[in-house]
Request: fold
Amino acid sequence: MAVRLRLKKLGRRHRPFFRLCAMDARAPRDGRVIEELGIYDPMVPETDARAILKGERIDYWLSVGAQPTRKVGVLIKKYGTNGTHLTQQEEALGRLSGRRAAAIETAKAAAAAVEMPKVEEPMPEEAPPADEAAVAVEGAADAAADDAPAAEAPAAEVAAEAPTEETAAEETAAEEAPVKETAE
Reply:
């Protein structure tokens, strides 16, 4: 099988992104790959930060006879194991990560400045039985009357009444359900 090192196109329209892959020479451009060996993003503003390659694996494939395409050959010459632009690539990646860090910090500062609306938490679905709920409501009402303003006490009473209404609805639904009779 003839192996080629070539670029597999990904991304979308007007935003290309490539993976450097070892592929069968007969496979289509975006077809099945043997191994992915790096990435190439031509939209990155730092020219030397556009390609990130796995040099050891590329050297392996070249040693077993894989042939690179022209563009891949240029990328290997610049950014491979003994590339001519390795120091510039490290500097460019450092500058790029510095920009990202600065952008993340500004985004965090902007998010901290915006006040988010408060969301009320939903009531739990399972309520304690009616006897325990009544005891809990009385204890909560006494504690609320001592510590909180009078406006919050009725809200606690309304919350306690809700489970009794649900049980009444369940009882009426059970009474209305038809009973199946077995024919003997």
